[in-house]
Design goal:
Length: 440
């Protein structure tokens, strides 16, 4: 099928490359000429493992192309996916839909024949209705259908998630549109990926509900971690103990410094705002948002406590800046709040991240950046693991013991074991543990 992807950011580029790999003819269109120039040169504007090879192969096979010419990209398309940004709006936290609506107007002006317009962007309930209204206003004569097809991609594992999804949600009111969407996703039938066809508004809400539930699991185990520290329990064992219950499951029960990224922070805020506007506030999600914000700030206080109650004049080494491994995404990363708290306390901060330092420099230009973990830790009074990159899972602690000014380690991801670090002569602080060590 002929598919146009409006937006060549994270969702649009990954989705477009994967659709092309299914055998479809895909054009990714973006108004950012610099981004399109990068893609034409074979360089990715984002970091996602395996994406560069996937894009290169499908460009070589002439199934994937990139352009800034909106009209030519849309005119021949059977399906046009809107995959533009929907950031939180300043002031009220509601999703900023201006890019979505602008895309709808341009699609309306360019499309010919029956066209399925698909909102792939994460949008509040009712956005599809407004997209349909806009298109009918611009083109009263147009033959089209608007579909909601939310994405459920994890940064760092997006290609695998797209090709082997837990489910595909299609929100449609038009049988012709459902047929088109089934044909687009037909290559996944061999994987037996369940396709759930719902009403459009149901599909829109499903995306927000899913992310809010996962954010709630993260926040729940983080609060249990705080309790574990006070009562002498171990949160990793607690998480395993409850996660083995099939009704609960073990995913998203890893205690840490709080969630961040492009989805959970803005999607929980948007759900809260939507619910408030509808007169049915989601108090649980409101609490999750508040607790997560507080937790990020509390992690700086945890580091300060591990340093004896003050970091003034001390050098703190930060390993990991992105909100999770295998991405360069710094949006709402816990490291931002942690570093701000440490600097407010008078610390000098040195940081290293395998992929996120370019984005981090734009947000935190006044800290020092190292070229590797050991240069980061040299002369440091404490080392803090914020993101659990694989590069940090087997550090040479003998070398670090010799080069650090003080042997203090704060592990906000529980990468290491208490007894191992103590044996190496380090004062070790993890999350949700109080000197006790898991048996596993």
């Amino acid at each position: 099928m002929r598919i146009t992807m409006v937006g060549s950011g994270y969702v649009g580029l990954v989705s477009g490359a994967c659709f092309a790999d299914f055998g479809h003819q895909v054009v990714c269109v973006d108004k950012d000429a610099g981004k399109i120039a990068l893609l034409h040169a074979g360089r990715m504007p984002i970091y996602e493992p395996g994406l560069d090879a996937l894009v290169a192969e499908n460009v070589r096979q002439d199934r994937l192309s990139f352009t800034t010419e909106f009209g030519s990209a849309v005119v021949q398309a059977e399906a046009v996916f809107i995959a533009v940004g929907t950031p939180s709006r300043r002031g009220d936290g509601f999703a900023d839909l201006s890019f979505v609506y602008a895309a709808a107007r341009e699609i309306a002006a360019a499309m010919t024949g029956f066209t399925v317009i698909v909102t792939k962007s994460t949008v509040p309930v009712g956005t599809g209705d407004e997209v349909e209204r806009i298109i009918r206003e611009v083109r009263p004569d147009a033959d089209f259908a608007v579909v909601s097809n939310p994405e459920f991609l994890r940064e760092g594992a997006a290609i695998s998630d797209f090709k082997r999804p837990d489910r595909i949600v299609i929100g449609a009111e038009d049988a012709r549109a459902v047929a088109v969407m089934n044909e687009i996703y037909r290559p996944l039938y061999l994987n037996q990926a369940p396709i759930l066809v719902t009403g459009r508004r149901t599909a829109e809400l499903t995306k927000y509900a899913a992310n809010a539930f996962l954010a709630t699991k993260i926040t729940f185990i983080n609060e249990i971690a705080d309790l574990c520290e006070q009562v002498g329990a171990n949160v990793q064992e607690v998480a395993r103990g409850i996660g083995l219950d099939n009704r609960i499951g073990g995913k998203f029960l890893h205690a840490g410094p709080g969630y961040g990224g492009s989805c959970f922070p803005k999607d929980t805020l948007a759900l809260v705002k939507t619910a408030q506007d509808s007169g049915t506030p989601v108090r649980l999600v409101e609490t999750v948002v508040a607790v997560n914000d507080q937790r990020k700030r509390a992690m700086a206080r945890k580091v300060i406590a591990a340093c004896g109650g003050s970091v003034r004049g001390k050098t703190i080494a930060i390993l990991g800046l992105t909100f999770k491994p295998n991405t360069d995404d710094m949006r709402d990363a816990p490291s931002l709040s942690i570093i701000a708290g440490l600097r407010d306390g008078g610390a000098r901060v040195v940081a290293y991240d395998p992929e996120g330092m370019e984005a981090a420099r734009a947000l935190m230009p006044d800290i020092t950046y190292a070229t590797d973990p050991y240069g980061c830790a040299e002369g440091a009074d404490a080392l803090v693991i914020v993101t659990e990159w694989n590069a940090f899972r087997a550090l040479d602690w003998a070398t670090l013991a010799e080069t650090m000014a003080a042997r203090v380690v704060v592990d906000l991801r529980n990468v290491y074991r208490v007894d191992d670090m103590t044996r190496r002569g380090f004062t070790y602080t993890g999350i949700g543990q109080s000197g006790v060590q898991p048996n596993t």
